[in-house]
Amino acid sequence: MVKGKKYQTYASSGVDIDKANQLIDEVRPVINKTKRLGADIDIGGFGGIFDIKALNYEDPLIVSSTDGVGTKLLLAIENNEFKTIGIDLVAMCVNDLIVQGAEPLFFLDYFATGSLSKDIAKMVISSIAEGCLESNCALIGGETAEMPDFYEDNHFDLAGFCVGAVERKKLLPKIVSVNDEIIGIKSSGIHSNGYSLVRKLINKSKVSLSSKSSFSNSTY
Q1: What pLDDT is recorded for position 33?
Q2: Are 139 and 129 in contact (CB under 8 A)?
Q3: Residue 158: phi, psi to the nearest 5?
Q4: Rg of the chain's alpha carbons, rounded to an integer?
Q5: Angstrom distances, CA of residue 165 to CA of 6, 37, 45, 67, 168
Q6: Which domains does the chain have, with CATH numbers?
Q7: How far apart are CA 13 and CA 114, in angstroms?
Q8: Residue 178: which region, alpha, beta or left (left: phi > 0; alpha: psi -120 to 50)?
């Protein structure tokens, strides 16, 4: 090294690979809980592996889906609430599989931020793992991207990718016929669609999200 010369490193540009590797080590126990038949989870590699033969399908079709949680993520960031947003992410992808009759098999996530906060990332990834557990879907990989200058301070983006399988003869939708029964299930809330409108209504009405809502016993 030349005396007095200041060298630039990847870390000095705002990308801390060591911190990202520490994050992987710290979330590994949570992710390992999502292990299911066909998935031998060992995160940190270049690609996740799933053995579909282990499920004994006869004539399977592979169904895949990718999605995010839209601007609902802004509400999570603004209110410092990250314990459920990962469940939302998994649900957005898994729902698109099950409506076609597919069984969710494995999930991968993409977490992109300007500067990595291990605490926030751990909460988000733990939430994703919880969503996978609820869906019997293995979290077999993902990507944590640190991109200085691309995202505002304390902001991040999330995306998910899910793969499932269905026997060819059970693929949905089917043709609806006379005398078929239709089952309606009441929605538990707004879920993760339409939040650009929701946020606009919140801002226009000046409501506080911590106030008691006008349509339930909980807060907005």
Answers
A1: 93
A2: yes
A3: -130, 140
A4: 21
A5: 54, 13, 24, 18, 9
A6: 16-172+190-205 (3.30.1330.10)
A7: 11
A8: beta
Average the pLDDT over 167-194 and give the result: 90
* pTM, two decimal places: 0.88
The predicted-structure confidence for 55-84, as pLDDT tens digits, reads as follows 999 999 999 999 999 999 999 999 999 999
Residue 106 DSSP SS3? strand
Tokens 């005398």, located at residue = 179
Tell me the two tokens of residue 24.
Answer: 């992987």
Other CB atoms within a 10 A radius of the CB of residue 18 amount to: 8
Helix (H, G, I), strand (E, B) or coil at 70: coil
pLDDT band at 18 (very low <50, low <70, confident <90, very high): confident
Helices 118-134 and 85-98: crossing angle in degrees, nearest 10, is 30
What one-letter code names the amino acid at 22? Q
Q: What are the residues whose beta carbons fall under 8 Å from the beta carbon of 126, sequence distance 6 or more?
A: 27, 30, 83, 86
